[in-house]
Amino acid sequence: MNKPQTQAQLKHGRVTTPASRGSVAMEVGLLEGWQVNEMEGGKNFPSLTAGPFPAPYQSDSDSVAPPADGFILSGGKADARDCINYTNEEMSKKLNRPFTWPLLSVNPGQTFHVTWQYTAPHTTRGYSWFITKDGWDPKQRISRAQLEAKPFADDFYTQVPYYAHSSELKAKVEHEVKLPAGKKGHHVIVLLWIVANTGNAFYQAFDVDFQ
């Protein structure tokens, strides 16, 4: 049976608390809210290839190509939103003043709570959380080699196919996760809001300091 056709809709969102890199870029005047709402790229991350979403969710819309290395944090956007991928050095040059991405103070294993603001939510498959490896290099842009190979947490709706359950697959305004144990110092967290009925996920990034 063929899947029903769905209209492309501009229904996006971003994390409002705690401060993401997008929030910081808005504060320093590099981006506007609509730009941070639209940091979307292929949902098959960390794969580089477009195509079916992994089992058991193959009935979801196929993924478009996920972001290339160096453009992960902006969801692959290489326009003004590329600033989300900048190192401290790149941001300092852009702003013509010393700059470091502000760090959120966290503890290993703690609950990390985020609040989302949606212009209007997509049919949601779920959320995936990635984090940088121990020993990652903050002087380099975030690449797959800088991140742990697998998410440290997934929060997926299990109902399939999505088009028979669209009223249940709601984006979460309040969302939380348990942070990994054993981390120390500065790390970057990448959060994907994964959409069932399009090929995209929305990417959010946080700089944290494990105490």
UniProtKB/TrEMBL annotation:
This is Chitin-binding protein. InterPro entries: Cellulose/chitin-bd_N (IPR004302), GlcNAc_Chitin_IntDeg (IPR051024), Ig_E-set (IPR014756). It comes from Pseudomonas frederiksbergensis. Keywords: Signal. The keyword Signal applies. Pfam families: LPMO_10 (PF03067). The keyword Protein biosynthesis does not apply. It comes from the Bacteria.
